[in-house]
Structures are given as C-alpha cells and as structure tokens.
C-alpha cells in the first residue's frame, strides 16, 4: 500500500493541518511550563530530590490512571468537543503556577500539574483516536510521524526557549505562554468539522452500552489480541528504564554538570531535553523512507527489536562520559534511533485497531506505560540518595534495551498473522 509523503498530507488535508497546528502551539507551551515548573520546584525546595520526584509523579501518574477512562470516553463521545473543553480548562489551570512563592506553596504546583495532566490524558486520547480518521490509511504513517515528531521537535524548541525565557525573564513568563498556547490550540481544533474525527457506523450501540462495559471491552481486547498485548508489555518494559530519564536529566544537567562545569541549571536541563527532542524528531522524519524499505525487505520484526536494544545501550554509555556536550551527543543519537522505531511501531499498531475501539486501546497502552514510567521516576528520585546519576544512567539504558529482547520473545511465540498485515 502506498503511503502519502509528508508534503502531500499537509498540502492536501486542511483538517489534519489544523490538528497539527494546534498540537504545535500547545506543545510549545507545555515545554515552557515543564522547564519553568521544574526550575521553580528546584528553587523553592532547595534542589530536593524528593520534591523533584513528586513533581514528576504529579506529571505522570494522573495521566496514566486516567488514560483508560479517557480512551473509553473519547470512543463514546465527541472527540472534537473533548479536545476543545480540555484545552480551555487547561488555559485557566496553567496560570496557577504564578501563585507559587515559597516551599509552603509547592502543593499548588503539584495540584496544578496533576490537573493539567489529567486533562491531558483526555486530550491526547481524543487526538490519537481522531488522527487516523483525519489522515486516512494512506496518510497514517506520515500523519503519525508528523504528530509525534512535532511533539518532540517542540520538546527541543520549547525546552530551549523555556530554559532561555526562564533564565532571562523569570518563570512567570513561561507560565503565561503555556496558558495562551492552550487557548490557541482550542481554536484550531474548533476549525475541524465534527464528522472528520470519528467514523459514523451503522447500528452504533454506544448509547445503549454502559461505560464500564466499554471499558472492559478495551481491556479484554488488549489481553486477547497478540499484537496489542505485545506492544503493551514491550512499552511497559521500556518504561522501567525510560522513567529514570527525568531524574537523570535533572540531576546530571541541573546539579552535576551545573556544578562541575558552571552551567546555569535551567539551561543545562534544557539542553538535554532539546537534544532529546531533536533526536526523536530526526528519527521520525526518516521513518517514512525507512518504512518503505522495511515493506520491501520484510524486516519489520528485526528492525523494531534491534533498534530498541541499540538505543538503550547507547543511552547507557552516556553514564561514562565526563562532559555535558558528550552526554548530549549520545542522548541525541539514542533518541534518533528510538524515534524511527517508534514511528514504525505506532503506525503498525494504529493500523491494526478498529476505529470504534482505537481510543480505548491506544490510551490503555499509553496509560500502562506511563504508570510504570511514573513509578520508575519516583524510584529513581529515591535512589539518588544512595547511587550516582551516572549509575542510574547505566541501569536506565540497559532496562530500556530489554524491551527489544521482549519484542523478539513475543514475536517468536506469535501463532497467527503478522502485526503489519
């Protein structure tokens, strides 16, 4: 099957352009918020590892817990309206960070973070479920790569600009930009017609089914479908190591390299996230040509497994390097490798899911991954009292690489069909 190129999809699909534009603006604001909020927590807590760990948990766990519920919700109701309402609500909540002045106000930062990422679970569930309808089957690979590469490109640009803005103008400016970005995103989603984001199916029984029965259906599908379960298990295994990246960047960039090389802590952390964003973006942008080659060579199985192993081992090597710039280069390469892998993997996964259940399965997968990610992040923050950030980097890379081993094991036991059929 022919896949549309990036330019063909963008030029010929106004509704997808609007969704992409909204994500571009809101993700830019999100990364302004992340760098500023992390810096604010570091400042008022006197660089407490526990305070940073709680901040990361507040970002990850609510998203993880709410994702299966959000997926069921967006399969039953208007995906467009969910995106608009959550964006408007996040506009208000993002301004709450302006009231954090001292350690006694940290609860405001944690509460606002929890609310932002709870609503984010609904927005992402609706966006991810709607995207295949906007792109069509031929445009799904390009659409997936563009949506995710844009997300991570804005990780790079937003982190860099957020670090600069926080250092130059203070954290308040970043929080205001974040709030404004949600409002602009809501407007771009409003421009998309309702019938473009969800298929109309004959005999739809959503209104006659209970919410819990739909939620159960998503869990049952994920367990019984071999490919869906493989993706679920593999991503959870990856997250056992991947969750530590938040703490690694904070402690190596914001503390270790800041002290040993004289970096501004916010700038050092922003550099690492910028390298991550640009690396993943590069990987996803070459995914289109990579997928064409994989289709011809029939190499999807080995490609996904080996790239997962390679990216983790490259990341682990970062624990041995003495400077921020060398570490940044390894982060960039590692994220580029996993970026192209993820674009291929996610496209195969989305193609395998029926529209009426896509929201539930994709958010369940994401939620399970984020649950492990959050637990791993908090565990990593506690380990900082006992081990060095370098040791944590070795362990993180090796655990993430094991996801590729799990992929090979699951594919060897597969009994029916190919996941990319």
Write the layout of secondary structure elements.
Elements: H1 6-12, H2 14-44, H3 49-76, H4 79-93, H5 106-135, H6 140-169, H7 171-190, H8 211-224, H9 226-242, H10 245-261, H11 265-285, H12 287-297, H13 300-317, H14 324-352, H15 355-383, H16 389-412
Helix pairs in contact: 2-5, 2-6, 2-7, 3-5, 3-8, 3-10, 3-15, 4-5, 4-7, 5-15, 6-7, 6-11, 6-14, 8-9, 8-15, 9-15, 9-16, 10-11, 10-15, 10-16, 11-14, 12-14, 13-14, 13-16
Question: In words, what does this structure look like?
Answer:
- This protein is an all-alpha fold and 421 residues long.
- The chain has a single domain, classed as MFS general substrate transporter like domains (Growth Hormone, Chain: A).
- It is built from 16 helices and no strands.
- The protein has helices at 6-12, 14-44, 49-76, 79-93, 106-135, 140-169, 171-190, 211-224, 226-242, 245-261, 265-285, 287-297, 300-317, 324-352, 355-383, 389-412.
- The chain is globular.
Q: TL;DR?
A:
With 421 residues, the chain is mainly alpha-helical.
What's the number of extended β-strand segments? 0
Helix content percent band = over 70%
Detail the poorly predicted runs. 202-206, 415-421
The CATH C-level class name: Mainly Alpha
Number of domains: 1
Structural class: mainly alpha
Largest sheet: none
| Shape by Cα distribution | globular
CATH homologous superfamily descriptor: MFS general substrate transporter like domains
User: Which whole number gives the mean pLDDT?
Assistant: 82
CATH fold title:
Growth Hormone, Chain: A
